[in-house]
Amino acid sequence: MNNDLDRDLESDLDSDVGLDLDRGLAQAAARMYVPPGDVDSVLRRGRGRQRRRRVVAGALTAAAFVATTVTAVSLAGRDAGHTPVATEGQVGRGDVGLAWRKVAPMSGLGMGSAVRQGSVLYSVSTAPGQADVRGDQRHRVVWRSTDGVEWSPASTLGDDLYLSDLTSRDNRVYAVGTAPATSAVGAAVGGKAASDMVVGWSDDGGRSWQRSRLPVDMKAMAARTTFVGPSGMQVAAGPKGTVAVATMSARLNLSSVLPAGTAVPAGWAVTATGVDLLARTTPSCPAGMSPELRGDEGRRLKAGAGASGEETGPVSCFKPDKATTLLSPQQAFGVAGSLTWADLHVDGDLLRAVRRQPVAFVAKAGSTTFERIEMEGVAEAMGAPMLHADDDGFDMVVTSLVGESEARMTVLHSDDGRRWTSLGSPGRGSPVAVGRLGGRVAVVGMSDKSEAGLFRSDGAGGWSSTPLADVVEPQLPPHTTLAVSSADIGPLGLVADVLAIPTNGDGPGSKELGAHRLLVSRDGAAWGEFDVDGLAAEHVRAVGRVLVTADRVLVTATVGRADAPRQVVLVGSPS
Amino acid sequence: MTGFAFSATDLPDVAPPVPSAWAEARFDDFYRGTRDPVARALAVTLGDGHLAAEAVDEAMARAYQRWDQVGGYDNPGGWVYRVGLNWATSVLRRRRNAPEPVPERGPHDLGPIAEPDIAVALRELDVRQRAVIVCRYYLGLSEAETAAALGTRPGTVKSRLHRGLRHLHARLDHLRPQEQ
Q1: B144 touching A (Cβ < 8 Å)
Q2: In the prediction, which pLDDT does A180 show?
Q3: How far is CA A570 from the centre of its chain?
């Protein structure tokens, strides 16, 4: 009966009203302004979290079941390699000496990606440069501002250059990004061209750009991969020079590197030392578990595929009660043989790209000639390292894997951009901002327990932490966590936009959640807290960017109704 | 919780490893191909593009945490939609803000049936009915797929769809120009 009624109703909507719901909803969706996403920030957010961990009882059984196991997938929380981080004492409230005012820009910049401070501010953004945050997102534009509130376009970038990051120094603007491969460099493989990594510079305020290719042989790598390219690029300039860094990512085209006559009976998987050739295309699960589970509502859980000749990932095995054990591809499919990187003649930049190791480049102060830096000791990285430059040199935060299960931050320092030394690890998690606070290297980020924190180096390999949840008042209710959405560390100190979010979707809470708050500190000990709605004198829907310059703090916020959003800039000045 | 339903918190409780580089590359592909349509589906459902953007990225981060598992689902985009919707509605509850008020409409607003009327009429529905309509007519999922994505029973999908369509029909019929 209902089926007939539904069909009748759908028919009515189509014929009587002349309305196509599919098309109407598509039009409605297309007209809504949805801020663009950033896969790197999502990856950082995901890496910085650690779910509540309970070892599934069957995990060990699963590991024992598969006799051909060569690579274990961690199922329990491990603590190997963890750097002890002391909790910082002496945290309290204090006068941070900032007076705020709200400015409604006539030509505000939308949700741009990157800004670095100098005498003039620059940003690269897809937004239209209007106070109305809606608009055309098709073209990336370099924007220029003298006050951080009003922005004017300096140049519109064509399709032949995709900038990732900007920095400025001594009236020169530097940019890093990618450009389509030319006939001279790069190669189309499988219909997909490898992009070159490029550095650009402008000496006329961002209006015109010169560019050069960074010294990485993309063509050679493209010929032996199905995909290769940077997964993120950063650039920072200071009095000691300019450093650009990128993390390479590549998917090996195994058939192009296999020794002649080598058979690949099933899929394959990358290991630390090379490639394992898997034995079967059908996964095996421990007793009582299945690689596929079908529910009575159409949901089908299935293990990863093991197609012949394709790279294969971990697979899940399911119990009828939904309990799951994750198996490495070697556990699930068995191993027929192994090949080392030497067997495959995979080395140099290709090996770095397969391992997702960062590559870095440096130019002397005032120069546009970039040379490679060998980042010895930096293991596999996830996303682009985060860079900071000041009079003391350069600081870099690299997020990498510990084993196969943990994301861990490592901080490096260089006086000249060429020789880097490790400052140790602030712990597990992911960074949001890096800079200097009270003369110490400081990182703001999310810890492995999904807690926003400030981590500061003692300069000798030790780190201390300040959970930002300890700073906010009143105390957070149960089942909530404090997330940092945007932050910057600059000459006026640290400013972080934080947001309390429910951790279980239903946790009780007496404090209003979802409201943005700014935490400010000049030294990491005395903190000020500002309610963003209060500063804006209206409800703030989103905070897009926090920027700390030598003489002000700029916080870009979106206010107004969802269908009529407006931008305001909160300007904090020393009081 | 019904039958075979999943949410962000009731996934099988195995500690997931950080995805491998292999999985990360595939998640990257998934994000680039899925983020915009799911974000827009949430924007239509919630009537708030900014909240939708926050929700989809939150859900994507959770998907990434569990990518070795979520990536094996028949419809991982549906999972992201549902987790994002749950997260957004939870945030809205805690903000104690009512959904965006529906503008009052006067006789002068009545005109030819056009897209904004669909959006307005949709916002008058309960969010669960909206979600079913969006899954069926924007994301193009079948009833079974909608049930799987939303973690509910097909019968529930059917009844919500029925009520939602009936409301849309009445609302849009009211706005329909008089025949000449």
Answers
A1: yes
A2: 65
A3: 25
Contacting residues for A46 by C-beta, under 8 A, at least 6 apart: B60, B61, B62, B63, B64, B65
- Tell me which residue in B5, B9, B43 faces A504 most closely, judged by beta carbons: B9
Across A210-219, A260-269, B101-110, least confident range: B101-110
- Average confidence score pLDDT of chain A: 73
Is pLDDT at A354 greater than 70 in this prediction? yes
Instruction: Give the global pTM.
Output: 0.64
Structure tokens at A347: 């080395």
Distances (CA, A) of A484 to A390, A447, A496, A566, B22: 24, 11, 7, 23, 28
What is the β-pairing status of strands A315-318 and A300-302? unpaired
Interface of B with A in 57-76 (CB under 8 A): 57-58, 60-65, 68-69, 71-74
Over residues A155-171, the pLDDT tens digits come to 776 656 667 777 888 88
Question: What is the arithmetic mean of pLDDT over A109-136?
Answer: 49
Contact A319, A288 (CB under 8 A): yes
- Work out the end-to-end distance of chain A between its first and last CA atoms, rounded to an integer number of angstroms: 71
SS3 letters across A12-55: HHHHCCCCCHHHHHHHHHHHCCCCCCCHHHHHHHHHCCCCCCCC
Classify A469 as helix, strand or coil: helix
Strand partners of residue A453:
A445, A467
Q: How confident is the model at residue A363 (pLDDT cuts 50, 70, 90)?
A: very high
Average pLDDT of the residues in A11-23? 51
Cβ-defined contact of B95 to A295 (cutoff 8 Å): no
Backbone angles phi, psi at B35, to 5 degrees: -60, -50
The angle, 0 to 180 degrees and rounded to 10, between the axes of the packed helices B49-65 and A39-47 is: 50
Rounded CA-CA distance A573/A444 in Å is 22
Collect all residues of chain A within an 8 Å Cβ-Cβ radius of residue B36. Answer: 34, 37
3-class SS at A240? Answer: coil
Q: What is the pLDDT of residue A100?
A: 94
Most confident of A342-351, A540-549, B30-39: A342-351
Record: contact A298-B161, CB cut-off 8 A? no
Q: How far apart (Å, rounded) are the C-alpha atoms in residues A160 and B54?
A: 30
Is the CB of B25 inside 8 Å of chain A's CB atoms? yes
d(CA A266, CA A334): 10
